[in-house]
Amino acid sequence: MPRRASAATSKAAPPPQLDALRAEVIRTMGEFEDAIIATRNQLKVMETLMRRVRRMMESGRSANEIARQANAAQARAATSKIIRDVQAARHRAQQAQFKMAAAEGATMAEIARNWGVSRQLVSRMVKEGTPRRRS
């Protein structure tokens, strides 16, 4: 009796499509790594700023004076932007990996189990268009 191809093999995408998906995974993981580095650098800046702010507070300066001198609004905005950027990069990298796993023949349930997320989330991310990086 001839041997049948396994379900995972029969569902897999052709090699050129897998190559393109792999390149996308590698690209998005690089973006994610860069975003993590930028986040770490911004957190170091914030750590230094908070240390300075604490010293000013200990010296008896007013909260408004400290906020002005520390550029609190600008520091908060920069940190918020970095956090949004890292979340977006994580989403793109995760989506690319989900799409590749699905193209390799994994079920939504398998992908969800391996990543510790819901099957519905995996399904939605595999179906949605590739998000573009904001500049």
Q: Notable features of this structure?
A:
elongated; disordered N terminus; mainly alpha; single chain; 135 residues
Provide a descriptive summary of the structure in words.
There is one protein chain. The chain is mostly helical and 135 residues long. The chain has a domain at 15-94. Helix content is 78%, strand content 0%. It is built from six helices and no strands. It has helices at 7-11, 15-58, 63-69, 72-103, 108-115, 119-127. Helix 4 packs across helix 6 and helix 5 (108-115) crosses helix 6 (119-127). The N and C termini lie far apart (58 Å). The model is unreliable at 1-10 (pLDDT under 50).
Q: Helical stretch count? A: 6
Shape: elongated
| Model regions low in confidence, pLDDT < 50 over at least 5 residues | 1-10
Mean pLDDT, all residues: 89
Gyration radius, in Å: 22 Å
Counting helices, strands and paired strands, the structural category is mainly alpha
Q: How can the largest sheet be summarized?
A: none
Percentage of residues assigned to helices: over 70%
Query: How many E-type strands?
Result: 0
Q: Report the order of strands and helices.
A: HHHHHH
What is the first-to-last residue Cα distance? 58 Å
Topology:
Layout (H helix, E strand, L loop, with lengths): L6 H5 L3 H44 L4 H7 L2 H32 L4 H8 L3 H9 L8
Helix pairs in contact: 2-4, 4-6, 5-6
Put the structure in a nutshell.
The protein has helices at 7-11, 15-58, 63-69, 72-103, 108-115, 119-127. With 135 residues, the protein is mainly α.
